[in-house]
Amino acid sequence: xxxxxxxxxxxxxxxxxxxxxxxxxxxxxxxxxxxxxxxxxxxxxxxxxxxxxxxxxxxxxxxxxxxxxxxxxxxxxxxxxxxxxxxxxxxxxxxxxxxxxxxxxxxxxxxxxxxxxxxxxxxxxxxxxxxxxxxxxxxxxxxxxxxxxxxxxxxxxxxxxxxxxxxxxxxxxxxxxxxxxxxxxxxxxxxxxxxxxx
Amino acid sequence: xxxxxxxxxxxxxxxxxxxxxxxxxxxxxxxxxxxxxxxxxxxxxxxxxxxxxxxxxxxxxxxxxxxxxxxxxxxxxxxxxxxxxxxxxxxxxxxxxxxxxxxxxxxxxxxxxxxxxxxxxxxxxxxxxxxxxxxxxxxxxxxxxxxxxxxxxxxxxxxxxxxxxxxxxxxxxxxxxxxxxxxxxxxxxxxxxxxxxx
Lengths: 198, 198
Known about the structure:
The complex is a heterodimer. Helices cover 39% and strands 19% of the residues of chain A. Chain A is α/β, with parallel strands linked by helices. In chain B, α2 packs across α3. The interface between A and B is medium-sized, with 35 and 33 residues.
């Protein structure tokens, strides 16, 4: 099983110009590692829909890779969206599922099917082009240089130790810059940043 | 004599006159309107009233159709498309709107995304059975009144979502106006489809 740092730090080291959508307990954790203008915190929004927002971005920006850092509780809320993503053949989209088997931000209550659900198998059955699962940090980091650049859609499930992140709020006093503005400000800023880079 | 003879012939040879409904809403005209306002993607889920439109979209080379498995996905995907620089439009049924309320709130509304949402108004005609807007449990359980219709407009008003009705091709200019207003306000706009699209 990986720690949250073992999951995210290798991604932060490899991040270039990808759009990164983070959700729930991964929002602050990613924000501590990255201050990129193409980071977007799917916080104060609608739980369970980060991967659908990422799909829209991936289809709109086919020349750019989109990473969605999702939790297992969030993913369980909209498993059907995996079918939609596969059907759209979003080759530039990677959905990461951080599988710690709990609703971390509300105090680590166990998720339904904890330990039994295999997200990579579900994604494969939905028609994802590439699916992977990792529970070992070294194997995960070794594989990343290859699997981050495959033609997707790709789902990467990573078994994580439960953490203790509180709910990601949006307020001026947040350490993480991308949580300081409103959700609307963040969405419009990301749109402007993407438009400027066209 | 001549007049009665002519009348007899008429009764014998001319079948009953069909009832031409010039107040018709057609997929072809709806699609033309979408193109007129530059829609790039339609995200949604069909019902009987919008089936013809989805058939037309599936065959259309200019507008990308994204069929989702649940309506909440549609709002989040549309938000991602818009942030990424595209011009999406959402088409769902009113039942799906109620199912997906938090996704609409947490994406298009909270992010201030100017997307027009066409919502088919299932049960619209059944509202004629009510003397006043449905208010009581008895009203909402009536066999001859579709409760999703009874709850639709009060829900939209409660959410402060401006809406208008589209019932025939003459109303299609409302789509153009809705998109313009949505852009002015940076906020979604709803159009209720009260007739089956042919």
